[in-house]
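Lab notes, practical 5.
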Amino acid sequence: MATYVISDIHGQYDMFMDLLEKISLTDKDKLYILGDIIDRGPYPIKTMRKLMGMPNVICLLGNHELMALNCLEFLMNEINEKSIADLDAKKLNDLVIWMRNGCGTTIKEFRELGREDQKDIIEFIKDFLIYEEVSVSGKDYLLVHAGLGNFSREKDLEDYTLKDLVWERPNYDIQYFPNKYVVTGHTPTQIIRGNPNPGCIYKNKGNIAIDCGAFIPNGRLAAFCLDSGEEFYSYTDTNER
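Output from the prediction step:
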């Protein structure tokens, strides 16, 4: 049995399937998805439904799922004068923020589903973990989507806000814990300052950043094996599949 982590799929269903083949995932393995399954890429809901059928997958909440939860139930309603009249300032602001963050493909696929399937998607996302602490092969890991915003060594994990954990970017030059690795997505490794290998998994001072920019040109998905430290990569748009 092996334990893998993947993050920021962003609707890149074909890349995800390619990566699953490369890690040879079995039913005995465990796979953590560190958020941002949806938005930007072509098949966010198709990817979500694939994950819903995989009992060995544990999903964590990303900022894109959080934005979706603020909007999807409204989108289940018929758009008419009454529903528009009931759209208060907060809901409108939530929709605008989500639109600015690439929700178009998610909304398109979501609205093609029947009502029960739509409800299943929402309930599935509501069950996502905020973070997870795991021990694998004698090493301790904190798995979280974005990082530890407003970090303090005096804080317990329960003291961090949702915004701290799913929106705020980490400081990769800080060793957060003396004996625990922090595995994050959210920040494409292409934009990490000082990264000598943009587009590859980045490691520094106990940080392991695994978002390899699947939604950006020449980006790809990455998987990291917690047992062995092996790295696996999907094809990019310029690779042979």
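Observations recorded by the TA: Residues 98 and 192 are 24 Å apart (CA to CA). The chain has a mean pLDDT of 94.
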